[in-house]
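User: quick one, fold this
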Amino acid sequence: MSTATDPVLDSPTRSFTSTPDAFHALAVAVAAAQQDGPLQPVTVIAPSHASALDIAHFLGRVGNGGRGSAAVRTVTLPDLAEELAAAAGQLSGRAPLPAVVREGAIVAALAQTPGLFAAVADQPATARAIANTSSSLDAACPEDLERLPRLVREVARVHRTAAAALTARWYTAHDLYAAASAALGTPQAVKRLGSVIGFQLAPEQDPSAAAFRGALEQHSGISLLTAAAPFSPGETILSVSDADDEARAVVRLVIDRLASGVPGHRIGVFYSAAEPYRALLAQRLAEAGIEFVGTGAQGLTDAALARGLASLLSLDPAAPDLRVILDVLSQGSLNWQGGTLPSSAACERLHAHPPADAEDSDDVDTAELPEHEQKRRLDYARFTEFVAVLGENLRGVFSAGGWSEVSEALSGFVSEFFAPRSATERPEQAKARKYLSEVIGELELLHGIAPAPTAASVRSAVRQGIDSRRSWTGASGTGVVLGSYDDGVGRDLDVIFIAGAADGLAPARIRENPLLPDSAGPMLDARLPTVHERAAARKEQFQRLLATGVERTILYPRGNLRAGGSLSPSRWLDGAAIQPLPSFAHGLTQGAPTQQAATAQEWRVRRVLAGGTAADPVLESALEVRADRRNGTFSRYNGNLSGVAESVVDADKPISPTHLEDWVISPLVYFLRRILRAELFEDVTLEVQISNMQRGNLMHQVLEDYVRGLTEGAHPVSAERLLEIADEAFRDTANPAWLSHTWDRDQSRIRADLQKTHEIDDHARGTGWQHVDVEAEFGGATGEPPVELDLPDGSTVRFRGKVDRVDRHSTGQILVIDYKTGKSEKYKKLTAENPTAGGTRFQLPVYGLFARRFQQDPAAEVRAEYRFLTTAGNYASVGYTVGPDVVATLRDDVGLIMAALRAGIFPPRPESDRYANHTTMMGAPGVRHTWERLKTDPALRDYSRFFQEEK
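Assistant:
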C-alpha cells in the first residue's frame, strides 16, 4: 500500500510497500506531467531494461484511460547518459571501453613498469584484478598519489598509465556520466527530457552515476517512486533439501499457477546466486516445457566448441599433451578439414597401445601384415599427422606479430579444426559459433593497446571472452521471467518466486577489495561505498524485490550437495515460519508442494513407483535391467547372450590361452575386453615410477634381444652384453615424469634380477641345455600355424600365442619357458596332476603342445614351466611335463569354456577390487551383489567349478 495517495506529486520522493501500487502512482504522475498536453515529454528512469519494458507496456495499457501513452520514454540511467552525451557530441570519435581492452592496457602498463607487482606482473590474474579495481578508480583516483598507501598507490599508478593510453579512443562509464552531466547544462537537453521520474531506483553505488543523478536533480528535477516491503515475521517460507530439489519445487509451483490461469509472462522466478540457480532453474523450466525469458541454462563456456578451443590453446605446440587432444576428440566438436581422423575411441587405443614397431615402419613391409594391423598403422599415421599439423597451427597462432594477426590466425584455426559437420548446424551450435567468432574478433581491439601477444596472453584473452558470453532465451512478454534478485526489482508481475534465500547466498558474503580497501576511501577524490554500506544496499534491494508482484513465495535450501554442509534461512527473513518440504523421493511421488509432477519424466517415474508400466521402451528396459541385476536373473542384462551367440564368438578363429583365463576370471569382462574391445585407458604419463607391467615388458624385451643374439650367433654368452642391452632399454623406456630416485632404484633392481637370471641360465647351459627359439609365435598372421586340440564334443579349438623361449637338452628333452616378473605363490597349484589349476591356467599345457614341434625324437619329453625372474618370485620355476594326462585335462577344461563361449555365457563374475579394472569402474559392490544372487543359477551349473572362490 502506498504511503501517500495524493494524485499530485507534492514531494520529490514517494514510497510504497507494493510495486503494483508504485506502478499505478507512476501512471498518475505521468498523467499529471502531461496535463497541459498529451505530447508533453516525460522521461521515466527504470532500474533495468526489463523494468523499462514493463513500464512502457503498463503505461500503454492504462495511460489516458486505456488509450495508451505518448511522448513517454522509459530508459535506464546508463542509456539516458549515452543519449545525452551523444546528442551533445561530447564523446565523438570514441567508443565504450570493453573489459578486454582495459585489461590489455593494464598488461601493457605492468610490462612497462611493474613496480611492486614485478613478481606477478606476467600473471593474467594480476592484470584482471587491477582492471576490476581500475573501474572504481576512474572517478576516485586522486591527483596526488603519494598520500595513498603503498599498494593502493601502485594500483593507482598502473590505472593512470593505462587510462592515459586509452583516452583517445575509448571512454569509460565515468567519462560517459561526466559528459552527460555537462550536456544537462543546455536548455535543449532539459526540454527534451521534460518531466523526469525515477522508478524503483536504488541509491547509486558508483560515484559517477550518483553525480549524474545529482545533476539531473539540479537541472531537471527528478521525482522518485520507490517500493520496498520489509519481511513480515510469521510469513511462511518453504525449506527444500538442496538447490536441485528447490528448482524442481519452483517449477511445480509455476505449473500450479499456470494451471490456475495466471499467464506465464505475469510470473517471475528470481534467484540469489548465479551458481547454481541460473542453470538449474533454466534447465528445469525447459524440461517441463515452460517458455521462459532470461539467461539460458548454458553459456559459451558450456559449449563443446568453446571448451575444445580453450583446451587446444592450452597445449604446448612443441609437445602437445595427447591426453588433452583425446579429451577434445571425445567431446565431438573437433572436425579436421585436413583429413579424416579415426574415432575418438580408436585414437585412445592407439595412444595407449601404438602399433608394434610403428616408429620403424619404414623397415616393415606393410603388405605382409594382416588387414586389421595395416588399418591400425594407417590410423596411427593419420593421428600422428594430425597432432603435427595441430602443433604447427598452434605455433602460428602464438607467433603472430600483433593482435590483429592473432584474431585472423585463430579464425583460421577454428575453421581448420572445428569446421561445421554439415551446412545446417543445430541452433545452439550455430549460436555458440557466432559468439565464439565475436570473442575472436574482439581480440583485434587489443592492437596498439596491449603488449605483443604471447601464448599466455592469447589463452587468457580467449578464456575471458568465452567466460563472459551467455545465451539469452525468449523475448519479453513470451514466458515466465527468470533472473537474479536485481532483475526482479521494478517488474510488473502478479506472482513471484524467490529462490536461494539462505544465509551465505542472501546475503552473500561481501569481501573488501584488497587492492582498494575501505581504509583508503578518505584519501580518494570520490567516496566509494564501504563493505557495510554495500551490505546495507543489498538488503534494501531485497526489500524492493519483496515488493514486486501481488503474490510471493520464498524458498531456501537446507543443504548444499555440491560443497557439503547445512544452510539456514536468510537473516533478512528473521522470524519466518518454516514449512519444510520432504525428500526428493517424496517430491517425485507426491509432487510437493503442489501435488503436481513437473516434467514428463517425473510423471513416468511416479507411475512406475505406483506399480504401473512406464509406457516408455527405454525406461521399461532400464527397469528390467535394474530388476534382473538386483534379483540375480541370468538374462541378457547379466551376460546371457544365448540368443545371439552365433554372432558373438567366431569358433574357427584362433584363441590365446590367456583369453580363456580371462573368461574364468570374469566372463563379462572377457566380453567387454575381448569381444567389444572396451579396454580401460591407462595413461602411463601420469605414473611417477615404472609400473609392474612396464617392468615386465622391459625385462622380457631385454631377455628376448639377448637370447636372440645367442641363437643367431651375434654375440657370445656374456653378462656384460646382457646389461648393455638393458641400459639401451632403460634409455628407450625412461619417462621424464618418473621420479629420478625411484627410477635409479628400479634400474638397479632390474640389473640385479637380470644378472641372477643370467647365472641360472648359464648354469643350465653348462648342463646341456641350449636355446632353440625365442618369441616363437603360432596361430598368428606370421609364424607357425595354430595349435589344434580336439574337444570332447567333436569340435576343434585352435590356439594362438607367443612363447618367450624354447630350449633343448642334449638328451632331446624340450623345455618351453614363459617369463614372469611377479610373485610365484598364485601359481603354486600347478602340477602334472592339476595342470590347469582347476581350470584357471592354460598357458603351460598349450605351450607344451606347441613345443612338440621342436622334438627331434617324438618320444622326447616336453616340459613347460613359468620362470620367475625377480626376487619377488624367488627366481623359482613352476611347471611340469606335458604328457597325455595333462592334455586330457586340458581337453576337458577347454571344452567346457569353449562350449560356454559358443553358447554366449558371460555372467558378471567380479574381478578383484584391489586395483582399477572394469569391475571397479562398474562399481564393485553392485557387481558383487549381482554375482552372489546369480552364481547358483542352473544355467551356470556346468561351469561352477571354474568359479570357486579362493580361500
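User: anything notable?
Assistant: Residues 1-11, 358-364 have pLDDT under 50 and may be disordered.
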